[in-house]
Design goal:
With about 450 residues, the protein is mostly helical. Among the domains are: about 240-345, no CATH class; about 350-440, no CATH class. It is built from 21 helices and no strands. The chain has helices spanning about 10-20, 50-55, 60-65, 85-100, 105-115, 125-135, 145-150, 155-165, 180-185, 215-235, 245, 250-260, 260-265, 270-305, 310-315, 330-345, 350-370, 375-385, 400-410, 410-425, 425-440. The N and C termini lie far apart (about 65 Å).
Amino acid sequence: MNGITARLRSFLEAQEEALLAPYATLSRYATRRHPLQPTNPQEDFRTQFARDRDRILHARAFRRLKHKTQVYVPHTADHPRTRLTHTLEVAQLARTIARALGLNEDLTEAVALGHDLGHTPFGHSGEKVLARILAGKEPSCPLPTTVVAEVGTFKHNYHSLRVVDLLEQRYPTPGLNLTDQVREGILKHTSWRADLPFPLPDREGLNLQRPCHLEGQVVALADEIAQQTHDLEDGLANEAVSLAEVEQLALVAKAIPILGDAYRGERSAFRRAAALQRTLIHLLVTDAVYHTARELQALTAGYGLGDRASWQSFWQSDPREVVGFSPAMQPLFAELKGFIYQFIINHQEVNLQDHRAHLVLTGLFRAYYTNPLTLPPYVLLRFSEVSGRPYLRDLPHGQAHQEVATYYHPDPRFVRILVDHLAGMSDRFALSEFETLYHPTVGSW
């Protein structure tokens, strides 16, 4: 074979050491909550972070993203972004930025692919409904004050961790047993608080008191870039805004001269919108790469960080938010974001979706909470396992109602399990369950 041999994990780790920037996160230092099952070193072709990426890709929660709303309802047309296509766009942008900065692409990709696993059906509106129910602020779903005091809140990045640490069941230990570095990046892809009252299964390894590693910071920025640019394109496609209105934005005004006469002379509005979107992405990514590189260079010079060991020591003692836009780009991006919120996120079609999310999720919660026998067996079995109570369907006839009143309704673990169940649903499944419970037909029976 002319000396060609398989590239084992040891080779890939040595490549990382040689090729990645001194501030990158190396996979050889990855840590996990549980040891992996033994692997033959001669058959191990993946770094620790590449293994995490693959575990996420094979997770059921990842597959369900294809039927979860990003902004526009995905099951009414073929082309609006879904939570899955959004995730793939974030991964693509994050890999590009990470590669340009010499960061660990495997870690970046794993975080990007896992960052939205905890998202609810119906996008952020579903997230708000579940948080409102848990806070005891939803009149149609009243909870005992003692439960509200203990059950905690809902936030999708925290729930993403609950998914990968507890709810996925593919391995001998609960969850996907991801590395701490991937878990930390998933949590910190959006705002977090060390004291947020959310029942994380395991807080170890998350470094809750400090900024994320650079790869995680890249994913957080890529998430913002992808979200604003694809929401703009989807808004144009749905005629929530016009191209003429979009062209008044300062960032767009910077993009049009780059496109030149080819843009001005293009008769197809679709191709003009596509050209505009990719140029906006180019401007934002390029600005982020060069600004972050300058920030890293300033830290290197200012603190004498000449090698990997000095960077590692610095990052342990004084981590920083480094990845971001330049001061010149920040107001342009803020204007774009405000425009999208005002004219696209706040559009009638999206608000109809918000109303539907409230109607469906409160209706489902109320039905399941009132009569848990409407729940699937695996949900009831989960409560039986965590509470030690008998499986509800095993009780003699007539005893279930008293069991629910005495042991289910006062227990915050039951409410959290209901929220786990609702958050995991796709839009399509949630709508189907709602129809079955509230608008039954012969076919649904």
